[in-house]
Specification:
Number of helices: 11
Radius of gyration: 18 Å
Low-confidence stretches: 215-225, 228-234
Number of strands: 0
CATH architecture: Up-down Bundle
Oligomer: single chain
Structural class: mainly alpha
CATH topology: Ferritin
Length: 245
C-alpha cells in the first residue's frame, strides 16, 4: 500500500513538472532539485522534535540527512548557474510544490519513517533516470561545454568531509573529475544513486544508519546483495552473512 500511494504521488508531481517545463531541461532540473532536498529537512524536523521530547537520540541520522540536503543544495546551485531559475514562474511553481512536499514528508515520517524513506527513494530513482537519459541524449554537446565554477568548487575543492558523509556505502572516498559539463551531470546522477542506496537501506527493519565518519560505521547492504521483498523485509541469513563479512 505504501509503495502504491507513493507511486501515485510521484506520478502527479512528475506529470505537473514535465508539462510545465516541457523541453527546457535546466528549468526542469532546477525544479527537481528544489523539490528533492525538501524531504531531508522534513526528516530532520521530526527527528529534532523527537529529541526535544527525549524520545529519540541518534546523531548519525541527522549527520547523514544534513549531508544529503547539502548535496542537493549544490545540485540546485549548479542548475541555477545554467539558467534553470531565470523565470519567476518557474521558481514560483517549484517552490510551492516544495512547500506541499515538505508537509507530506513530515506527515509520512510521523506515521512511518519507512513510508517516507520509500517516497524519497522513488524520487531519487526518478532523478537518476532523468539525468541518465539527459546524458545519453546530449553527450557530445555536454563534453564540449565547460563546467560551471560552482560545480568545480563543490566536487574538487569544497567541503569534502561533508561530501563523503552522504555516501553511506563503504567503497572508499569518491573524488570526481570535472573537466566539462558532461562530467558534472555524471556526478550529479551518481549522487542520486547514492541517495537511493541510503533511502533503500533506511527502509530495512532493524538496521541503524551509520555516518561514514562514525567509528562504528558498518558496511551497508547493497540491493544486489540482499533483496528486499514487497513488505520491505530482507532475508535474515543474507543480512547476517553480509554484516559478518
Amino acid at each position: 500500500v505504501e509503495r502504491r500511494v507513493n507511486e501515485a504521488l510521484i506520478g502527479v508531481a512528475v506529470t505537473v513538472i514535465d508539462n510545465l517545463y516541457g523541453g527546457r531541461s535546466y528549468a526542469r532540473f532546477h525544479a527537481l532539485e528544489t523539490v528533492a532536498r525538501v524531504p531531508y529537512f522534513s526528516f530532520m524536523s521530526v527527528l529534532h522534535l523527537y529529541e526535544t521530547f527525549g524520545w529519540w537520540r541518534k546523531a548519525d541520522y541527522l549527520k547523514v540527512h544534513f549531508a544529503e540536503t547539502m548535496n542537493e543544495y549544490h545540485h540546485l546551485l549548479i542548475m541555477e548557474s545554467l539558467g534553470g531559475a531565470e523565470l519567476w514562474k518557474d521558481r514560483f511553481v517549484a517552490q510551492h510544490i516544495a512547500v506541499a512536499y515538505y508537509w507530506i514528508c513530515v506527515a509520512q515520517y510521523l506515521v512511518s519513517p519507512r513510508w517516507a524513506y520509500n517516497l524519497l527513494e522513488q524520487v531519487e530513482s526518478h532523478a537518476y533516470a532523468t539525468y541518465d537519459g539527459f546524458l545519453n541524449a546530449n553527450e557530445e554537446v555536454l563534453k564540449a561545454t565547460p563546467p560551471p565554477s560552482v560545480a568545480v568548487q563543490y566536487y574538487t575543492k569544497g567541503d569534502l568531509y561533508l561530501f563523503d558523509e552522504f555516501q553511506t556505502v563503504d567503497r572508499g572516498e569518491r573524488r570526481p573529475k570535472i573537466d566539462n559539463l558532461y562530467d558534472v551531470f555524471v556526478n550529479v546522477r551518481n549522487d542520486e544513486a547514492e541517495h537511493m542506496k541510503t533511502m533503500e537501506f533506511c527502509q530495512r527493519p532493524g538496521n541503524g544508519l551509520r555516518s561514514p565518519s562514525s567509528k562504528e560505521a558498518m558496511v551497508l547492504l547493497s540491493k544486489d546483495a540482499c533483496e528486499v521483498d514487497e513488505d520491505f523485509q530482507v532475508d535474515e541469513d543474507c543480512e547476517k552473512a553480509s554484516i559478518a563479512a
